[in-house]
Amino acid sequence: MTRREEETRADLLAELRKAGTRIGSSVDDVSRWLLRFVQREPSSLSAGDLSNLSYEIVHFLGHGVPDDSSRPVESGLASPLVRKGGTYIVRKGEYDLSGPWPTGWKFFPSPADIERFQTFAAGAVMSAVRGNGLVLDLPPVELRLSPPSWKVRPHTEDAGALWTYQIAHLLGKTAPRIHLCPECKTLFLADRVDQKFCSPRCQQKDATLRYRERHGLISGRPRGRPRKTETQPPKTAKPKGGKHGKSKR
After folding, report:
1. Who is most buried in 28, 92, 214, 232, counting CB within 10 A?
2. Are residues 186 and 158 in the same domain?
3. Does the predicted model carry a pTM greater than 0.85?
């Protein structure tokens, strides 16, 4: 490996570590990252934000989902991907960046990949929100377990299959806690069993609206007080002079 290739490899791994920091190291962190992803509009992102999102997707594909909400993601990449000839190939061990990579080569999913991943994830998440089951067709994926953690690690040459596996694995842990806020229509991961709103602000807005409905205050008037529907006739002006004025003859 040449010095240039070593520097490229080091830069890519550094960016992937930053992506892991942005996503977080718990099941809840990864789930919230996915919910943010499915609600974003990639076409409206700046070049920098799109670059960060691409690295985050690759990190998610490689690291997968933590074992529980408190255990951090293990260091190293479970089933990393490399790009070769326009396709993504899973390699054993670390990212294999050997070879004559073209100038300006970027280790990113293509815009079409991002759109495809987002569409699939959004459909899976909404099925979970509606309480529907999921049946996912998964091409052959090799599952490996090894000591000391004995964590299941998927290996495949199909990036779409790996994405499907990681989404299914994540929803298997968090689907019952994913809800759609009735106030702002935002997808969120509930922290409590009885949590129905994404934030205290949305909960307060809903409570205020219900209070006004119960007390007939939707129109701004107390219940029982009729709304003015007709314009009151103007008051008749009093004749000048009154009883002391001059009478007409």
Report:
1. 28
2. no
3. no
